[in-house]
From TrEMBL:
One of its GO terms (cellular component) is cytosol. Keywords: Glycosidase, Hydrolase. It comes from the Bacteria. The keyword Signal does not apply. The keyword NADP does not apply. GO terms for biological process: carbohydrate catabolic process. One of its GO terms (molecular function) is beta-glucosidase activity. Belongs to the glycosyl hydrolase 1 family. This is Glycoside hydrolase family 1 protein.
Length: 458
């Protein structure tokens, strides 16, 4: 019997920009995604824009009922900054009423709301000012966080500052998958540093005002596995780990930067502007808990010295022969990675309380798996979750302080540049009618959550 600890959190994660819709109503201002779609809709899969989400803004009551029927005892979403503070000064009371009703209904349904402040959705007016490149945005974020704590603090006990803070940096400053879409290592570090300071200021504001509950952050951790045990490959894995995991993990949990990161900054002649007092503030503001999004590992080998891409000097990806792939997303499925993360947190991060904040499988063309009743038989998703949970359970048995598992996601949702190409939900969204239909995995998840133990594959 794979029993999970009492009070284990079972549920799903989503985000405001990916599920709310009502992008230009309810008083919401534009965020970067609304702007980008308006400007360059061809970049978006099948040209489906951020208005075409699952429509939680209109459907939240029935959606919360469905969560309850699926056995959820918790659910994570994010507040839209551009909805709550359209001009950065005046609070949008319509947004307050909407979020308050959502959080209240979740609570009345026995579902703990876990509320995130930032999920890749920079308000456009701040993007115009330079976004995370600009230190002023740190102060704007601090103000936004304070407003959220004050307006919803009586209904929310578990707060998250950022989801995957490294993603907008990696995708926007070393890639062109988020705006601004440049390759600039110096700007990447500056924007990353400002993101971190925005996190720190929000944590401080929360603690200084003695708000009830706890505050944490959600990081996408990708354990780095070297191609071989040669010193060069081991060093490559170390760099991948320092840059993509420890760059945020160490400061938010330990209050300090990894030494290797500081030497990287020096080696690459990166100049990060900071304020006196920043480092003390960082030291004084560790998180109460950590959320971990785990989808895939990172397989690395020594980099090619002649490469033109700066980071490739340090490490390069390689395709492991034994890899089991999710061909739709192109991501490797490596369940043991979840166990490795569990032990790393236990042994190297003081066994801080943590939970799996996202894990899931995006699949294209799920309609072909419909049975005669019309239900999508997503046994592959059940197997995916089940195999990960076995490794997570082993990590918990061995003492890792993990208190929950959230699947990505509840209802198929809109996704950045991929839109509905890969479906992740336990519940299917009919894009034409907006109707929702449970997939087979929703029933399996209910059995899992209600029994607090791993059910048969079904
Ligand atoms: C996570 C993000 O990294 O992965 C989500 O927090 C995202 O916002 C999810 O939707 C799945 O990735 P994708 O790109 O397939 O939607």
């Amino acid at each position: 019997m794979m029993k999970f600890p009492d009070g284990f959190l079972w549920g799903a994660a989503s985000s405001g920009p990916q599920m709310e819709g009502a992008g230009s109503s309810g008083g919401k201002a534009q965020n970067v995604w609304d702007y980008w779609f308006q400007k360059e809709s061809v970049r978006f899969f099948q040209q489906i824009g951020p208005e075409e989400t699952s429509g939680f803004y209109a459907h939240y009551k029935e959606d919360i009922d469905t969560m309850k029927q699926t056995g959820f005892n918790s659910f994570r979403t994010s507040i839209s900054w551009a909805r709550l503070l359209p001009d950065g000064i005046q609070v949008n009371e319509e947004a307050v009423a909407f979020y308050r009703d959502v959080f209240k209904r979740l609570d009345e349904s026995g579902i703990k709301p876990i509320v995130n402040l930032f999920h890749f959705d920079m308000p456009f007016r701040l993007y115009e000012k330079g976004g995370w490149d600009n230190r002023e945005v740190v102060d704007e974020f601090e103000f936004y966080a304070k407003v959220a704590f004050e307006r919803f603090g009586d209904l929310v006990e578990e707060w998250v500052t950022f989801n995957e803070p490294i993603v907008p940096i990696e995708m926007g400053y070393l890639n062109d998958k988020h705006l601004p879409g440049v390759f600039d290592l110096n700007r990447a570090f500056q924007a990353g540093y400002h993101t971190l300071m925005a996190h720190v200021k929000a944590v401080r504001a929360f603690k200084d005002r003695n708000h009830r509950g706890k505050i944490g952050i959600i990081l996408n951790l990708t354990p780095s596995y070297p191609r071989s045990d040669t010193p060069k490959d081991l060093e490559a894995a170390m760099w991948a780990d320092v840059l993509y995991n420890r760059s945020f993990l160490d400061p938010v949990v330990k209050g300090e930067f990894p030494e290797e990161l500081l030497s990287f900054i020096e080696q690459e002649h990166i100049h990060v502007r900071y304020f006196p007092g920043d480092f003390q503030l960082l030291k004084d503001s560790p998180v109460d808990f950590l959320g971990v999004n785990y989808y895939q590992p990172r397989r690395v080998q020594a980099g090619a010295p002649a490469s033109t891409n700066t980071l490739d000097h340090y490490f390069e990806p390689y395709q492991w022969d034994g890899a089991k792939m999710n061909p739709h997303r192109g991501w490797e499925i490596y369940e043991k990675g979840m166990y490795d993360i569990a032990l790393t947190i236990r042994d190297q991060y003081g066994n801080i309380p943590w939970y799996i904040a996202e894990n899931g499988m995006g699949v294209e063309g799920e309609s072909r798996f419909r049975d005669s009743s019309g239900m999508i038989q997503d046994s592959y998703r059940i197997e995916f979750m089940s195999n990960h949970l076995k490794w997570l359970h082993k990590g918990i048995e061995e003492g890792s302080n993990c208190y929950g598992y959230h699947v990505w996601t509840f209802i198929d949702n809109w996704s950045w540049l991929n839109e509905y190409k890969n479906r992740y939900g336990l519940v299917e969204l009919d894009l034409k009618t907006g109707r929702r239909y449970k997939k087979k995995s929703a029933g399996w998840f209910k059995a899992l959550a209600e029994s607090n133990q791993l059910p048969d594959l079904g």
